[in-house]
# Entry
Amino acid sequence: MSATILTLFGEETAPEQAKAVGKKAAPPKEKKEKKEVRSEEAAEEQEEIEVPADEAAAASILKDWEPEKQYYSIGEVAGLFNVRTSHIRFWTKEFNLKVRTTKKGDRLYNPEQVLQIRTIYHLLKEKRFTIKGAKAKLKEDKKPSLPATDIKQSLLQLRRRLLEIRNGLA
# Structure
């Protein structure tokens, strides 16, 4: 029983009777079960992970890295840290790094800025700091550990001791 339709161009078979060529209708989607948030084994494994010391971890990213050029492109810097260029661009903006740009607008990083980005990478990716926390940590590291008056006093004391030693030898 084939149904035919009378059209301007003659008789044609009805669309529901025609065998369609191409994709088949997709089966109805089944609801996915929610995955367990964290298994006990995974929690134990995560607790066993040790975070390396600050200096060692920062050095592990660019271990034995010697700058070969005066400036590096954003793609080269991203390749050094195995991140996307958008990360480097975002970090440059958030941490107020003053980078050189070409007339075309390409960002160029000098070796000192690459080392700053290494520190930022270490704080954000390895130590799992937030942006706000990393900014606070960097600001804290820039502050001198001893007030200037203490340094001046210690130098004056050292000078006195050296003078006493000199006078004792004469």
